[in-house]
Specification:
The complex is a heterodimer of chains A (385) and B (294). Chain A folds into 3 domains: 72 residues, ATP-grasp fold, A domain (Dna Ligase, domain 1, 2-Layer Sandwich); 127 residues, D-amino Acid Aminotransferase, Chain A, domain 1 (2-Layer Sandwich); 147 residues, 3-Layer(aba) Sandwich (Rossmann fold), CATH 3.40.50. Helices cover 36% and strands 24% of the residues of chain A. Chain A has 12 helices and 18 strands. In chain A, strands 7, 8, 9, 10, 11 and 12 form a 6-stranded antiparallel beta sheet that branches. Chain A has a 4-stranded antiparallel beta sheet with strand order 1-6-2-3, with helices on one face. Chain A starts with a helix and ends in a 7-residue tail after the last helix. With 294 residues, chain B is an alpha/beta fold. Helix content of chain B is 36%, strand content 22%. Chain B is built from 9 helices and 14 strands. The radius of gyration of chain B is 19 Å and the shape is globular. The model of chain B has no long low-confidence stretch (mean pLDDT 94). The chains are: A alpha+beta (385), B alpha/beta (294).
């Protein structure tokens, strides 16, 4: 789960990292109220679940109330990489002497946390790694020992922080590491981490990703779910416990197991089709779940044909067939379906489908054959089946 | 031979009295796996169709001497169950459980490294390990596979079954199928399993099925070129995955330009590994590579 900047900063503050004063605004009037309270100048920042806000005009400095009104009105409703701006963060402007970079992330290769720090911040970290590798410190942390102050000081030095803020940076790194561990984050990044003219070290931005698998330990994280900002179909899928990702094609896909579904999307694309979604019904999906998942796929108006690709392990093909039959009696879809059932109870599943004789449902025996068939059907070809 | 599991396996199952745990335990036993015991706290003294159940791994080890543990306990307790099995001296732990928090996995991996370096963890969030004709530890539908000379290592369950079917229909059997799981912090990675296949006499060719996210496939590519003389055929899922979206597995995500299927396929090919574009092509390439090797 990705957090908005202001949510990440709330976690930072909770763990002792300095952040600027600010307030959330959902409209221009709330922005103006925040400006009055904070005092000018303020920075108006779009709160969206994507990067590249600055370049898209989603971050602006306002020296007075009129400017704040203008910026807030323009940024609200802006679309940044497909995300419409619905929320602003109004923050007291900071004086900046230097811009640094700091992050803690889960390094999958090393299977350990990785702390990164650089005295070159404010630009993409990949660019820093390319242009100033000598100024980028990277250190893996022993998860059982944690990040100690002494080690944090070494990292700050290695990333060439100014001598008079070494301690301040080290303290910020320790706080950031604490956010990473105690909040069950997989990423906690600050870019830029600024040094003010008074030599205070402060987080000017926050990028935090929390681990969905750890939500049971953090009831307070429910408030960060940003349900109003995610795609309504993806939101519904989450509530129903299936993995759904909306894509931009016209062929609905349902399968069991993430790898097989990804592979199905690829094989459909190779056959010349464009998948409308990724949907993993999960292991052991019953008829009820298959019915719900079918309804989910069909509620995307772009879908012209649907492919079921099931290889039953713990999932039983007869349950999949029953779910599809239930979905047909509830929805009477007029779209063509291609259904490929293999593995556990496949024969029983195929028999149930043959007996039900659902209109427009075409059985297929292999994965590639199924992909070609659904691509032809989505293209409007008549296929006997 | 075969790797990890076989006739020598003596299995103890954590979570043996649960619905999934009991079903798959009996399934594994019916296949021929030697299931010696199970563990469920508070249910010590019970039996599952003749398999004794203990409260702790320590008791199960003392009484039944297992060398392999399978973890079927719910996600929030799974990390402690894995560490309990390691502390009891079990050398191979296969964790099927899905949804374990990433930080629990970090703690498990760090603890195994520091205190139990001789213990090998497969998974979590994996379908298990199958040596056809010998032993099945996990949820892989054994009927799909035949015994033979192809070693399979994969990050995905059902995709592996699909590949297994393609192999069988082209006349190939398997030495061992290893599901390493789809989580960001796997207990074992591709390279570690490739090393085992390299030393296994029965394995003539290795199939490696990867997917988007992380860089385990790229690391494997380098290892294969430098250390492996056996032919390898790879498959990567997720060419059509969009950036920034988790595709089912917690570990399957393209971040920026990192972790794409394209980059993985290119890395593998640049290190001399054949990369199939479809599951069916895996079997075709396997046939071609073996003909060349022989």
């Amino acid at each position: 789960m990705d957090l908005l900047e202001h949510q990440g900063k709330e976690l930072f503050r909770r763990h002792g990292l300095a952040v600027s004063e600010g307030a959330v605004a959902n409209n221009v009037e709330e922005a103006v109220a925040a400006g009055r309270q904070l005092g000018y100048p303020v920075v108006v920042k779009a709160q969206v679940l994507t990067g590249g806000r600055g370049k898209a005009g989603g971050v602006k400095l306002a020296g007075n109330e009129q400017e704040l009104r203008d910026h807030a009105a323009r940024i609200l409703g802006l679309e940044i990489r497909g995300h419409r701006v619905k929320k602003l963060w109004i923050e007291r402007a900071s004086e900046i002497a230097s811009e640094y970079y700091a992050a803690v992330l889960l390094d999958r290769s090393a299977r350990a946390p990785l702390v990164m720090f650089s005295s070159e911040g404010g630009v993409e970290i990949e660019e820093v790694a390319r242009r100033h590798p000598e100024k980028l410190a990277r250190r893996h942390i022993n998860y059982l020992a944690g990040l100690g102050e002494e080690e944090a000081v070494q990292i700050a030095r290695a990333g060439q922080a100014a001598e008079d803020v070494i301690d301040g940076v080290a303290k910020a790194l320790c706080s950031l590491y604490e956010v990473f561990c105690e909040e069950d984050a997989t990423l906690a990044e600050i870019n830029p981490l600024i040094v003010t003219p008074e030599r205070e070290v402060r987080a000017l931005d926050a990028k935090v990703t929390l681990d969905d698998n750890a939500r049971f330990r953090h009831p307070d994280h429910e408030a960060y779910a940003n349900l109003d900002l995610i795609d309504p179909l993806e939101r519904r899928a989450k509530e129903e416990g299936v993995q759904y990702v909306q894509l931009d094609g016209d062929i609905g896909i349902l399968g069991n197991g993430a790898g097989l579904v990804m592979s199905t999307l690829d094989v459909v694309a190779q056959a010349g089709g464009r998948p409308a979604n990724f949907l993993d019904a999960g292991g052991g999906a019953n008829a009820e779940k298959i019915r719900q998942a079918t309804e989910l796929i069909l509620s995307n108006p772009a879908v012209k044909a649907v492919l079921f690709n099931i290889f039953g392990g713990i999932t039983r093909c007869d349950e999949v067939a029953k779910g599809l039959i239930e979905a047909f009696s509830a929805l009477n879809p007029t779209l063509p379906f291609v259904v490929r059932l293999d593995g556990t109870n496949a024969e029983e599943g195929r028999r149930l489908l043959a007996e039900a004789n659902l209109p427009g449902v075409h059985p297929a025996s292999g994965m590639e054959e199924a992909a070609k068939l659904v691509v032809a059907l989505a293209g409007g070809q008549e296929v006997k089946g | 031979m075969s790797i990890l599991v076989g006739e020598q396996t003596r299995l103890c199952v954590a979570g043996i009295t649960g619905r999934e745990g009991s079903f798959h335990t009996l399934n594994n036993r019916a296949y021929g796996t030697n299931v010696v015991s199970g563990v469920t706290p508070g249910k010590g003294g019970q039996e599952l169709e003749g398999i004794p159940v203990f409260n702790t791994f320590a008791e199960a080890v003392a009484q039944t001497n297992p060398n392999t543990a399978m973890i079927f306990v719910p996600a929030r307790f799974a990390a402690d169950s894995i560490l309990e099995a390691a502390a009891a001296g079990i050398e191979l732990i296969v964790a099927i459980t899905e949804g374990i928090p990433a930080h629990d996995e970090l703690r498990v991996v760090a603890t195994l490294r520091e205190r139990y370096p001789g213990t090998r963890l497969i998974g979590p969030n994996c379908p298990g390990v199958l040596s056809p004709g010998k032993a099945n530890v996990g949820i892989i539908p054994a009927a799909v596979f035949e015994p033979g000379g192809v070693g399979v290592v994969s990050r995905s369950g059902t995709l592996t079954y699909q590949i297994g079917k393609e192999l069988v229909s082209n006349g190939f059997g398997c030495s061992t199928i290893v599901g390493i799981g789809g989580d960001p912090v796997p207990g074992s990675n591709f390279v570690e399993i490739l090393e085992l296949f390299a030393q296994d006499d029965e394995t003539e060719l290795i199939v490696m099925a990867g997917e988007i996210g992380g860089s385990a496939e790229e690391e494997a590519a380098l290892f294969i070129e430098q250390h492996l003389s056996k032919p390898v055929v790879a498959y990567i899922a997720g060419f059509t995955a969009p950036e920034g979206k988790t595709m089912g597995h917690a570990g399957a995500i393209v971040s920026g330009s990192a972790g794409t299927a394209q980059a993985k396929a290119e890395a593998l090919e640049s290190h001399g590994v054949a990369v199939a574009r479809t599951p069916a092509q895996v079997a075709e390439l396997a046939a071609a590579r073996l003909a060349k090797a022989r």
